[in-house]
Structures are given as structure tokens and as C-alpha cells.
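Posting for a labmate who doesn't have an account.
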Amino acid sequence: MANDTIIDRRTILNIGGIQIVMFFITLTSFCVSLIDIMEPMYRFSFLQPLGFGIGLLAFQKIWKYAFAKISGAIILTTYFVRMSVLPLMAVLGNHAAIIPEGLLNAESYAIANFLSVYEFFVVSIFLMSRAKNSCGSIYDNYTLQLADGQMPHLNQRVSFLLKVMIVGMIAYMLYIFKSDSTVIRQNFSLLVGTPKDWYVRAGYRSIYDAGEGVLGVMVTLTLYVFWYIQAIVPPVLLIRIRERRMSGSARTLAIFTIALLLFMITSGTKMHSLECGFSFLILVYLCYAERYENTIKRIAVVGAIAAVLGVMAKSGLDGYGFENLNKVLSSYFGGVQNIAASVYTVDHFDGFGIKNILPDVINQVPLFGNRLRSMLHLGNTTNYLFNHSLTSGASLGQIIPALGQGYSYFGAALSPIVPLIAAAFADHFDSNAMRSDSLILKNIYLIAAIMMARAVVTTNMMSAVVYLFNTYVSLLIVHIGYGIKIRR
């Protein structure tokens, strides 16, 4: 009984309360979507909230465990936004879309709605099969295995070799910044920066774009090095904080200064900084659950509110706020409009098919992918074809959803394979994070689980290639520099 009390007290999220709120919003979305049932284009929009509502009630086992696992929580939350929030926003926003209207017809919309529900049930069944590997508490899922009352590796000095490797990576970045003083502004920004503060010189993005420019390649490499620093340095600092005798206020200041820097300093994608920041907060919670539990809850709530306000601010709060909000959310969460556009372009334009798998993967190989794809004459990527089909030559800047990517490779029946693969990777890294007895490895696995979970709905497996590369390079650095055995 005492143990049950501890688990209940250490469960960060009230699953019952979350289910009630989600079900209420889903029911509202379903009712509002029925307004368009007589419209040929949108007559099947009600299937989205209906499907999610049925899943919410049918897969109770998932909800018992999912929100105590970071990957399950992200996957189900992003499906909730896509299938419950977006249909509501679509009606309020007059179905405004970034996708050109000529490429959104009733047939592709109908197929997209059915495929989205189909995908959700496939992924949900997978999550249900994996739910047995977790309990109902985030603390007990990820807690470090205790040995003689001490957390392994926490009372050991970080190896000299790993220190050398970390210092070397930081020194490399400082050297690049000194070589070209514009690199910081062109590749790094603050999370709250304005659009004018966020731009990247095209010549620095890859060796293919940069031609033979050595600095361009080195700057690109700097962005990857920054990933490894984000993944490895914070848990190392947390270990040192635990080793040192510090007052409670000094420890709190040190911990939340690290968290603030992780959240604020961004490169490449702002979402990755949030991923690193939340992963670090989980580690803090594991080490100081009694002291910081309520604080971390408040930070999570504030972070969620800030994210919502940020999206609203970006979409505009004028008279067209709902229309812009619908566009932004559909873009970020692979809404039915983007899925419908995927279906339309695959069915009406040439170049799509299973043959795109190789160029999609090769193109994402860091530094040399673009050039290697061109040298091997592998053709265009699915994302390139998707964007240029939509605009007759110009890039729309949209990411083809994982479901659309699966549809382009395998057709309708097997289209959920791609998001299912992403979910499987997310669960794999999540399981490793739960089993690992090292804060450093646990942090890397947590970040990987978050990234791969996002790939299910908000991105696709092309982005996941980069996620996997950076994860395994980070693990390799730790394996060499710290001698920790990496779980397979």
C-alpha cells in the first residue's frame, strides 16, 4: 500500500483528468465537424474526431501507461491535435490552407480522412502491445537502478577522456565562431527571437550547396557538434552538481540555469532545444523528485502555455487569426489538408514510388548526402516532389507527413508502415532510457525517443535519418569517452 502511495504521488500527470479534457474537446470537434457533412469537400471531416474518440475509449490500456512514457505521451498528444483540435480549427478558420486549393479535391480529402483514422488505430495497437513494458509513474519508469543505496556513476568522476572530448568540441565551435563572426547570428538564435533574427546562409547548409568551400562544410559540422554538446554536457553537469556539496539555493540556481540555456539557445530547429530541455528536466526529476516535483510540474504547464501562445502569435491574432492558426497547426501537425495534398500529388504527378526510399535516406546523410544522391543519380526526394508538384516548380516549404510518405511508397493499404516504424524506434529508445543506469546515456535515449515520437505525426522518416545519425554519434562519443556499455 505504501508503495502504491509513492507511485501515485510521483505520477506527474493526472491521466483521468487529461482523458476527460481530451474527450470533451474531441466531442466538441465531432459535433462542430458535422456542420460540413453536406459539403462534398469536407463531408468526412467528422471521421477524425470520431476515430480519436473511439480510440480514447477503446484503448484504455494505452492511457493507463502512455503518459508515463515520454514517447507515448508525445505520440498520443500529437494525434489528439491532428484529429481533434485541427478539425475544430478548420471549421472556425474556414478551412484555410497553405496548400493551393486546386490540389485539394473531395476525393483526396475523403481518402486522407480514412487513412488518418486507419493510421491512428494501427499505431495505437502497437502502443498497446508495448504498454506492458511500463508502469503508471514516470518516476518509476525512468528511475536509475540503485546499487548499495547510491545511483551508479553519480558518485564517480567523469572520465578524463570524456572531458577532453567535450572541451575539444567546444573549442572547435569557438574556432569556427572566430573564423567568421557572422556564424553565430546565421546559425544560432534565441527561442524567442523574431523572424529577422533567424536566418541561415544557404551556402552553409551542406557541402553540396557550399560547393568546395571548406568553411561552409566546417560550419555545417558545427551544428552537429552543437547537438552532441546539448545531449552530453547537461547530464555531465548534473552529475557534478550532485557530487559537490552545495546549498539548496545554489543547486537550484545551477540546475535551472542549465535548463534555461537548453530551452533558449537554438540551432537548426527550435523544437530540438525544447526536446533537450524537457529531457534534462526529467533527469532533474529523477535525481531530486522530492524537492523539484512541484516546480517541474509548473514549468511543464508554463511551457505548454508558452508553446500555445507562441503558435497563436505566429499565426496572428487579427481578424484572420483562426484562418492563420489553422494553417500553422495543419503545417506543424501534418493535418488532413497536408495528407490530402500528399494523396493528390502521388495520384496525379509522376516520380513517386518505392524507388524514392533510397534518395530519401541518402539525401539526409550529414554533410555529403545531397552530393552523394546527385553523384549516384538517385533522383529527387519525396519531399522535393511533394513541394514542387504543389507549386509547379517552386518549393512551398512543407514537409510531407509520414502517412503521406508511406502512401507514396506503398499505397493506401500499407501507408501506416512509415509512422509505425517511427513509433517503433521511439519505443526502442524509450525502453533503453528506462533500463539505462547512466544519466548520460539516459539523456541521449530520452532525446532520441522524443525526436522519433515527433516523427510519427509532425515530421517524417526523412527527418528521422538525421535524428538517428546524431543519436548514434552521441552514443559513440560516450562509449569512447566514458566507457559505458551501450544497450542494443
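Reply:
Got it, the C-alpha cells are right above this. The radius of gyration is 23 Å.
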